[in-house]
Write a structure and sequence with these properties.
Layout: H1 3-25, H2 30-64, H3 69-72, H4 83-93, H5 101-143, E1 149-151, E2 156-158, H6 165-176, H7 180-193, E3 201-203, H8 204-225, H9 230-244, E4 257-259, E5 265-266, E6 274-276, H10 277-280, H11 284-294, H12 298-312, H13 314-317, E7 323-325, H14 340-363
Helix pairs in contact: 1-2, 2-4, 2-5, 6-7, 6-8, 8-9, 8-11, 9-11, 11-12
Length: about 375
């Protein structure tokens, strides 16, 4: 039995049952309520089927008649009347109940709308992010080129490492955003204007993750954008060699501060001669990458000794380490106090670093 015939029977039975029940008891019986519910569900199902079939048919008409497509897609600049007879004829031939062309076209367009809308929104967001970055980048170039960072209100540059931090940091972002020419300008600046021989004390950790890591990242991107830039790798090796002198300690743990000119290392007084676990435990990625690209295993060996030392530290097994002493081979200093926040950061950084190191070694 077709769906239309079943609906007709349901209407007849439902009406008769309802009238009899109202006459006998002046109220609807449970059977009538159930019949009405079923009738309503069947009608809704039929409407959905009709709408879907109409949408598919109209799409077929659009594909077969390119000239009529603008009308079917509700193009305001094209007359819709020409498409209506063709669409109506196809619907009649298919024995589909009449559906307004505008409504059917809207339904058909709605089927494809989510993906198209999402793609449009993604592009708008992407363009907005790039516009914001380029606005900041142009401001940095105009007012602070060559310094570590821009002070936007003062419209001047500020140094805390004195190593062109923003230029090095931004190269990977420029590459991802397709700004190849800007990337090349930065690469040229790094190779020509970034020098380390006249620099004094710098943070070992910050210089490693920002300068060494940034230059290595730029080298990797240069291989994708045009050709592997040997000048960038040479610069990464230069700063890597200078930073490696921080490992000249009895324990093998690096000093917190390193003089890039003299190679003299030191630790800040407020740590009592100790290194911060969150720093020494998260520099493995950069030095391992330097070993991979230069073929010199000494960089990787130095940073992996840190893990060997930490594995012997008692405080690592009691979750109490915040600082580890760099000048005592078999002793660690657990200055726990109230530094729960620092411990959380240390555990997170060390764990992530360990996971990435394992993945890199497995992939090799």
């Amino acid at each position: 039995m077709s769906l239309e015939k079943e609906l007709t029977n349901l209407r007849t039975v439902g009406s008769a049952g309802a009238e009899g029940a109202l006459t006998a008891a002046s109220q609807e019986t449970a059977a009538v309520v159930e019949l009405k519910k079923k009738l309503s569900e069947q009608e809704e199902q039929l409407k959905r089927m009709q709408s879907a079939q109409a949408a598919v048919t109209l799409q077929a008409v659009a594909a077969a008649q390119p000239a009529a497509a603008p009308a079917i897609h509700l193009n305001a600049n094209a007359p819709a009347a020409a498409a209506v007879p063709a669409a109506a004829a196809v619907l009649a031939a298919a024995a589909v109940p009449a559906v307004p062309v505008a409504a059917a076209a809207t339904a058909a367009a709605a089927d494809a709308a989510p993906d198209a809308k999402k793609g449009s929104i993604d592009k708008v967001r992407r363009d907005a992010v790039k516009a914001a970055f380029m606005h900041s980048w142009e401001g940095y170039k105009k007012f602070a080129w060559g310094t570590d960072e821009l002070m936007p209100q003062a419209r001047t540059g500020h140094n805390w490492l004195g190593l062109g931090g923003t230029i090095v940091d931004s190269m990977s972002t420029l590459a991802i955003m397709g700004e190849v020419e800007e990337f090349k300008k930065c690469a040229e600046w790094v190779k020509t204007n970034l020098h380390f021989e006249n620099k004094g004390d710098v943070s070992f950790f910050e210089t490693t993750i920002r300068i060494l890591g940034g230059i290595l990242s730029a080298y990797e991107f240069s291989c994708d954008l045009y050709a592997c830039d040997q000048g960038l790798l040479d610069k990464a090796k230069d700063i890597g060699n200078r930073l490696s002198k921080a490992f000249n300690t009895p324990s093998g743990l690096p000093y917190a501060t390193i003089n890039l000119q003299s190679g003299r290392g030191s630790t800040p007084g407020w740590t009592g001669g100790s290194a911060i676990l969150a720093e020494v435990g998260t520099v493995q990625l950069e030095f391992a990458a330097l070993s991979r690209y230069t073929g010199d295993k000494s960089y990787d060996e130095k940073v992996m000794k840190i893990f060997h030392h930490l594995d012997k530290a008692v405080c690592m097994h009691t979750h109490a380490c915040v600082y580890v002493h760099v000048c005592v081979r078999e002793r660690e200093r657990a200055r726990d106090r109230e530094r729960a926040r620092d411990r959380d950061r240390e555990k997170e950084c060390v764990y992530v670093c360990w996971c990435v190191c394992v993945c890199v070694r497995v992939s090799e």
